[in-house]
Amino acid sequence: MPTSSGGSSTIVPIEIPSAAMTIQEIPRGGTAPVLSSGVSDLAVLTKSTALKTSSGSNGLNLTTFTQANFPSSSSSGGCLAANDAQQAIAAAAQADYQLCLIQSTVGAQSATALGFDLYDGSYHTVNLSWSGHTYPVRLKVVRPSTLITSFEMEMCQGIQVNYSTHTLTANSDGTTALAERTISTSSSSMQTDITVTGTLNSSLQFTRKLIQENYVLNLPSFAPWCQYSATQTSSTLAYNGACNDANNSWSTQVLDFQLYDNNTSTAMSSYTPKLLAMGDGGIVVQLQGGTTNLQQAWTYGSDTLTTASSANSYLTAARATTAASVPSQFAVSYGSGQTWNCQAATGETPPTVTVSPGDLSDSCGRYIDITARERVECFGLDSTATP
Question: Are the CB atoms for 228 and 212 separated by under 8 Å?
């Protein structure tokens, strides 16, 4: 897995938020915001008055939209894009929830309470207890000086349901390169293998981010295996993905759209992916047979996405991108070095950390109830091709 995306990969001291970095400061890479020029992009967060929904926020909310947001006059391409973006956010949120849970519980414990030094570079097992059940977790944190350079986690619910690793490398220009991989099989409706790479500023916030994901869905009427990559900036999301299923009903979709972030703070303690929304955009879709079935731009207004009469910059970007290859069938699974038998090491007595209702709702609830769901029906909407 890559550990640097530019600059020197030599580990050097950098400015970090505290004297010694803690696991609570590890970015939740799947849904963390991307800042503009390393500072809070207030132009994005303050919102444009030209794009207001009935709820007073910008764009079509990507976690709460329903069929009602897509009347027959709305863009079928925009509808497809919203479905893809929602499922991508759901997968990323699933990974971030598991990290959040550890940060909010184990990360808040002292070495005395745990009975070991969490930052000594060794594997340690902790039993998480909630709702009458016990879930073992294995952790390894490497912190040679002030910067955590490696974090590894495995979680079990009877069997292993998670593997996660984060590698942070200080660059000579004062930035930090992050490489994160999370494999999750805890959900019956979605199994995910997500990789995040990016650059962090001196406050450990993203200034650039690339997300790559393999996922398998198991929904009543939609059970494909999919692969996608998404490049996120402070104001756009470019998505290139392909899906296939047991009936060889494959599709590729390249889309680019205006990303609105309706959060009023980028602080990890309060930031939520539930406030991400979509504005204007463009999409190129290919279905089984290899022909281009849809090239369409859309504009956002009044909680719906309407077909544009001419191309916009988002469709131009989508048209210039080579579509992803159609994937063969695969399963999300744990590979070499990613497995754990869910048992503490010989002679180890794991401490029990109780998970409070607040850990599940107040701290991490912004991730737990964003789940994969049935796609909004896009057939029969406006499929007029954009010239």
Answer: yes
pLDDT value, residue 361: 66
49 vs 63, residue with greater confidence: 63
Q: CA–CA separation, 109 vs 88, rounded Å?
A: 32
Considering only CA atoms, which of 189, 221, 215, 228 is closest in space to residue 376?
A: 221
Which residues neighbour 322 within 8 Å (Cβ) at sequence distance 6 or greater? none
pLDDT at residue 219 greater than cutoff 80:
no
- Say which residue the tokens 């972030």 belong to: 261
| Alpha-carbon distance values, 160 to 93, 164, 289, 372 (Å) | 19, 12, 39, 21
CA distance 116 to 121: 11
Residue 126 or residue 93, greater confidence: 126
Q: β-strands 276-287, 133-142: how paired?
A: unpaired
- What is the number of residues in the chain? 387
Per-residue pLDDT at 13 exceeds 50? no
Give the residue among 168, 387, 169 at the shortest CA–CA distance from 296: 387
The string of pLDDT tens digits covering residues 229-271 is: 998 888 888 999 999 988 888 889 999 999 888 888 888 888 8
Helical segments of the chain, H only: 42-46, 76-104, 111-114, 313-319, 357-358, 365-368
Collapsed DSSP state (helix, strand, coil) of residue 17? coil
Least Cα distance to 381 among 283, 310, 278 occurs for 283
Average pLDDT score over residue span 274-302: 88
Neighbour count for residue 341 (Cβ, 10 Å): 11
With CA atoms as reference, report the closest residue to 273 among 376, 137, 364. Answer: 364
Grouping H, G, I as helix, E, B as strand and the rest as coil, residue 88 is: helix
- What's the number of CA atoms in the CB half-sphere (13 Å) around residue 84? 30
Asked if 72 contacts 382 with a C-beta cutoff of 8 angstroms, the reply is: yes
Can you spell out the DSSP letters for 46-61? H--TTS--TTSSSSEE
Token readout for 383 is 């499929």
* Three-class DSSP category at 203: coil
> 176 — phi, psi (to 5°)?
-130, 135
| SS3 (DSSP) at 360 | helix
Contact 23, 30 (CB under 8 A): no
Place of tokens 């930035």: 175
Higher pLDDT, 52 or 322: 322
From CA 167, how far away is CA 177, in angstroms rounded? 8
